């Protein structure tokens, strides 16, 4: 007999989680749950609790639409479709609809088999894997079968999972905290677990390892080709002087290419590409696959680089947006011809059995040089080693002339810190030195109804920066300009599935939006400056008591950052830094006049 447990354990835990928004309480509920379920299935418990069946990078979706869910509810409850639809209109939530429908079920089924976690998981898995013409029928049958045996509360959560709306607010870090507490006895061990997560991007695998083998198994966790590593990220500073001071001497300044970041996993001729968000994007770039197969001289390797679109006529770099032509299912061959790309490698994390993430930058760069045979299409990022800010400045100008965004300046002694945004890599873009002409990537958390020409659509959005310390989204402005009519229609549709009837627990806002959303969509916004404001919560109290940081004259640039997760948005810390650096610029400009 394989280990299993009643599904009611999960349903009861989810009920409790739903009733709280406090992270500590959520952690406690998770700890209790983890200790109750058999260790063999803890990975499945972790995935289900985050509303999925597998780690994100596998891209598995259950794929059940509202219609199919309603039909399953109707069949399992014996109520008509009209009745079930009226419940949905009244309650506005499919999960609650299922719960209510099953409660009103007249006939009691005598031969009901209590649901188990494995049965639910395996059935959902079958649904996810169903393909082809008959898949909808099969999904309907499988789902109805589960609902037939489900208690109303269980049905509520099952339905939310299958339609992708189980939103318990359990962030990855909450799971890691809970695992550390449950299986190592202390939250102090979280960094070890975090490391395992950062090199595998698979919380279920981490859970299973720690539950079955304790801290020892976690320490033995190794990089595996095929499992994406969470990317190391860059902080930002405003001037070369600050950067040299921060790094403390010799710097490795690299061109910052404006394209799409990829993590390349090579296992013989088998090459997989992961995006910055760790989605499998292998299919977008058959040409890059071929370049890697031919020119990367290691049997197994994990490399990182930036794919850049190039102009066929001039060989010049093209803006990032041109890569969007590659995001299509059909006609890739044609897109490859029309929109050719080059790849610039900037890091190596693993090769032929050696984990390079713990080796210093300089050593990694040397290995990269040895392993990659370069030509016009496959190159290493251009680099300059220097401790002179003026040389960095000149290199920066050269980078911009060559069509790059600026520089990423790296600490040559630093290891590869998976999943971390620290001052080991520092971005320098030209715009930072003027006022706020730099763009920000902000998360849509709410909206306001439009008027006049925009009636019936959203007229403006409430957007937020990410507070990575508290794992919260804090508002920084209301943005209504820069949207074309097309944008507005598209946004309304895109945000529809994310609509919720209250402010999301991870959102901190003083402003009352007309509509709230699950923080998910990241958009690029430009603004003239950052000001202090009592109504926005980003950086609240960090510069002045009673004030947060708000954007003045914000405008949507037209760019939806679908390549960024909400957690990759501009952080509150960055906003505070930008505010401070902006002040400095203004002061510097004002000084000579003041003397005159
Ligand atoms: P950002 O996306 O603004 O946080 O900037 C960091 C990004 O710059 C990385 O995620 C890469 O996609 C990109 N990038 C371009 N060139 C480099 C480079 N030489 N080293 C590291 N990152 C680079």
Provide structural commentary.
- The chain has helices spanning 8-18, 23-36, 42-49, 66-77, 81-91, 94-103, 117-129, 135-149, 152-162, 172-184, 190-200, 203-219, 240-247, 286-295, 332-338, 361-371, 389-401, 485-495, 572-595; strands at residues 233-236, 251-256, 260-267, 270-274, 300-309, 341-351, 354-355, 378-380, 383-386, 406-410, 421-429, 439-449, 458-467, 472-479, 499-500, 507-508, 515-517, 522-526, 529-533, 548-552, 555-560.
- By secondary structure, it is an alpha+beta fold.
- Among the domains are: 233-428, DNA ligase/mRNA capping enzyme (D-amino Acid Aminotransferase, Chain A, domain 1, 2-Layer Sandwich); 440-585, Nucleic acid-binding proteins (OB fold (Dihydrolipoamide Acetyltransferase, E2P), Beta Barrel), CATH 2.40.50.
- Strands 12, 13, 14, 15, 16, 17, 18 and 21 form an eight-stranded mixed sheet that branches. Strands 3, 4, 5, 6, 7 and 8 form a six-stranded mixed sheet that branches. Strands 1-11-10-2-9 form a five-stranded mixed sheet.
- The chain binds adenosine monophosphate.
- Adenosine monophosphate (AMP) binds at residues 233-234, 254-257, 261, 276, 306, 346, 381, 408, 427.
